[in-house]
Amino acid sequence: MAYAAAQATIGDSEFDRDTAVVPRPGEPGVYDADLSAGWTIIQAVNGGYLLGVIGRALQQALPHPDPFTVTAHYLTASQPGPATIRTETVRAGRTLSTGQASLFQTDAEGREVERMRVMAAYGDLDALPDDVRTTAAVPPIPPYEECFGADAAPAGGGAIAGSTAIIQRLDLRLDPATAGWAVGAPSGKGDMRGWLGLADGRDHDPLSLLLTVDALPPTAFDLGIKGWVPTVELTVHIRCRPAPGPLRVAITTRNLAGGFLEEDAQVWDSEDRLVAQSRQLARALLS
Amino acid sequence: MAYAAAQATIGDSEFDRDTAVVPRPGEPGVYDADLSAGWTIIQAVNGGYLLGVIGRALQQALPHPDPFTVTAHYLTASQPGPATIRTETVRAGRTLSTGQASLFQTDAEGREVERMRVMAAYGDLDALPDDVRTTAAVPPIPPYEECFGADAAPAGGGAIAGSTAIIQRLDLRLDPATAGWAVGAPSGKGDMRGWLGLADGRDHDPLSLLLTVDALPPTAFDLGIKGWVPTVELTVHIRCRPAPGPLRVAITTRNLAGGFLEEDAQVWDSEDRLVAQSRQLARALLS
């Protein structure tokens, strides 16, 4: 199995370096970051990667370490390059703390433009009791070896890789049942499923879970829609610290109406635990 | 059919009066409200009603009329009585505008305390194209006449009504399959379904849809959990203007883990359209 070949660790990996934030001296709650061109789709910085950056700033600003629920509104398109994150501690409770953060970049005219705004509650996943009562079932994804990577068969692989730099950072293997769009045969169901690791072998943690819910191709591709599908709002719940190994991610769209659609993601770890749930509202800009 | 007996209209109803906000002269974006004791559960002001109040303030503050996606973080428990809502227009775009709002109340020591904070995107539902591609199916709820209201059989009805004032404002009829908890026999599945109108006969609109996603008894009751289930964060997407008549609401919890659970709600109108979707993260405080 290709996964596990590389050896990056949590704290020393591409994801950690590219989501690093530096507290600005003398300005409490303000962090500087450098958005990497390595996590782009065509020219757009991936929304899940942005969540990782802003999530790390909130992790430093708030008294609790782990994102429990994070909501992002994407306001303008982020560009690779310098960014400033301004955080606010809204409430610091015993079990949970609530924070807000905005990510800004400077435009060509030198004006500070807000790219995204986030509200979040942070807690301590390791402090939670172990009890689980779930009726959620692991999504039906074939074994890792039977799924399609960007290095797979020419037609499918090429289309999946496209011109997106982020593919080089991910170990993404799509369920063949949801990869038909890559060869011009979408299923029409609005599903996208696959295995998702990080290319350098770093295991997942709560911060990289923020990335995983918005890192697969859009479900719209499986509906046969080829245009851009920008996220309006995305909310992710982190329910459990993920065990080592690649994750399984399943995303579904049930309702495309009036030019908007929801994408519901569930993320499962190698011990068959539901570690994250997310829903986003996106626009379908038909091409 | 009991529904349709009363004749309140959108704009002239209990919900409209109780969610009214008054712009504060000389302070743009600031609104005064009076939280009604009529929408409480025991002593707590219902979170869905609060969304209606703050949603109305954002409707007045933003250039677009309809909530498309609204996220609320509940910070401290709201009390019936005066409240101040401070709004901010984050971004005003052509199709969507983004806003933020906080609801404050004054505590016994005269300090202003933030009760909840909301981020939202507003648009114009009537400006959307009519296209719908959906695989979502109407939830299996028996006819209105076969569901249980607060005036139903003594045991069930009494337990449903409890000491909650909000029951008087709602025309809530629970699916018998999810009402077993009221007679000490919860199904254990984590489901809650029913018909939901407003008691005075007012039809639903996008603002009252904000109420509907948090107005049924908690799914935790159907899991046999009797304690308080406070909402940490709730996000609702309004997908369509609802047709006249009572709505069908179906809420499910799949994953109770570490003392937290999600509640996923879907709301369907009388023309079988999916008009709202929501998910909240709540804490299960076991009693």
Automatic annotation (TrEMBL), chains A, B:
Pfam families reported for this sequence: 4HBT_3 (PF13622), 4HBT_3C (PF20789)
InterPro entries noted in UniProt: ACOT8-like_C (IPR049450), Acyl-CoA_hotdog (IPR042171), HotDog_dom_sf (IPR029069), Sec_Metab_Biosynth-Assoc (IPR052389), TesB_ACOT8-like_N (IPR049449)
Q: What is the source species?
A: Streptomyces fildesensis
Superkingdom of the source species:
Bacteria
Q: Indicate the segments forming the Acyl-CoA thioesterase-like N-terminal HotDog domain, all copies.
A: 36-119
Where exactly are the transmembrane stretches of this chain?
none
Ranges for domain Acyl-CoA thioesterase-like C-terminal: 158-282
What name does this protein carry?
Answer: Thioesterase family protein
